[in-house]
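FW: tagging you since you asked about this chain on Friday. Here's the raw sequence from the shared folder, copied in full. Didn't touch anything.
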Amino acid sequence: MPESDIISWTDGAWTHEPAAVATSADHLDVTAVESSDAWRHTAYGFVHDTEHALLAPLTVGEAMDVSFRAPWDGQFDQAGIFVQIDEEHWIKAGVEYADGHLGLGAVVTDIRSDWSVGYVDEWHGSEITVRVSRWQDAVIVRARADDGEWRLVRVAPFDGDAAASAGPFLAAPTRAGLVVRFTRWTRSAADAELH
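HL: got it, structure written out here
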């Protein structure tokens, strides 16, 4: 991976304020508000626009990495990275705990949301890193646990002419008290290859 620059926790702006934030030199502990989520229309019929995402600019040709840990014990607890043009055009990618399994996936929203997910139960207890690379016409999502191999998660269409921001995100649709520890937030050159 290319050399990366650390992004300060103070360089971002929240889409929606979390219940609590505790900052130290090497991590950011964030507590989600109960019922926070991000989704638009598809299958469920609702619009949820209450996620907690700490966003900084992401331009074409850049990548952003977010690393984090969480207990993964509440239904639909989720964390990862959020990439946003506006409230109807965004991507959330990372992990979500649902029905007793930890799932790695992405929700890509272009007015309506879609969702792709696969189990990564072996990632329980790991530091998880999600990486997005912004190309002219796409966002490439990769993820890994600890220092493991990167997995390609998604290749999603994304408007290269639009201003966008990205950064750490979390949500807790069904409970209060989810605390995610974000351990790294960096920017680098976008991945040049898909494979």
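FW: The chain has a mean pLDDT of 95.
HL: agreed, and The chain has one domain: 4-189.
FW: great, closing this out.
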